Amino acid sequence: MDMTRDFLNGILALNAPNEIDYQGRKFVDKQLHVVPQEAVAAPLETSTLTSIVDYITSGTDAAWLPANDKFVIHVAGHDSVELYKELNADKARDHLLSASFEGNEFPYGRFIPIENFIIDLQSLFVQDENTEALLTFVGSVKNDSSVEQSDDGVSQKATVRQGISLAKNIRVPNPVNLKPYRTFSEIDQPQSAFVFRLRKDDSQGVTAALFEADGAAWKHEAIEKISGFFQDALEGQPVIILA
Predict the structure, then answer these.
(1) What's residue 125's pLDDT?
(2) C-alpha distances in angstroms, 241 versus 163, 228, 232?
(3) Nearest to residue 77, comparing CAs of 184, 181, 180, 228?
(4) Which of 99, 100, 3, 108 is nearest to 54 (CA)?
(5) Dihedral Cα 236, 237, 240, 243, nearest 10 deg
(6) pLDDT by residue (tens digit) across 96-123?
(7) How far is 69 from 86, CA to CA, in rounded Å?
(8) In sequence order, what DSSP letters do the residues of 113-130 get, joined into one string?
(9) Tens digit of pLDDT for each residue in 220-236?
(10) Which of 42, 49, 90, 126 is the right S-S partner for 179, CB 3.0 to 4.6 Å?
(11) CA 35, CA 85: separation in Å to the nearest integer?
């Protein structure tokens, strides 16, 4: 029995960290992990900014959170917001909520059939005078295929013309300013410029495409709008907003 105990103690001694002095500095030969003094929360997954406001104003989990610590809202991006509490004794934070924008994205930079383009333009963009003008323009596009014949009684000649034409004359500014749904619904969607193009595809017929033309500046505008939303909705609340 004593031999077994001595054997186990020997194994434990081998696993114990050793302190080493080297050039005036102290090192240990094994990785050590601090036992936390306070447990921290894991985040709930949400998809709206309103959920964060409701969590704070309703006092959810107030009994389990430090009363004097402020909430920290980190606007991590146009589609991501995190809610924390301030640092605790272990220099760690309670991560309370994680809000992510969920939505379909328009296939920018790709030529797609006119029918798909019209559907996506109606469902994935804020409807205003600019989308109306573009829809009217695209809706008037025709895939022309005409044949001209000439016959002089001796020989016959046929000329085939194919291309794109408009049923009526409509002007659309290009680039066109549009508001896609690409951030949280609680804020006004940022407007940005898109280059609109048409072309004829041998397999799909007439196709259309939108190309982003603002260098993703809209992302910064969205972050500022999200920050402003929280400033208005949480005025007077113990909140720090980082954007």
Answers:
(1) 97
(2) 55, 9, 12
(3) 184
(4) 99
(5) -80
(6) 999 999 989 999 999 999 999 999 999 9
(7) 6
(8) EHHHHHHHHHHSB--SHH
(9) 999 999 999 999 999 99
(10) 126
(11) 20
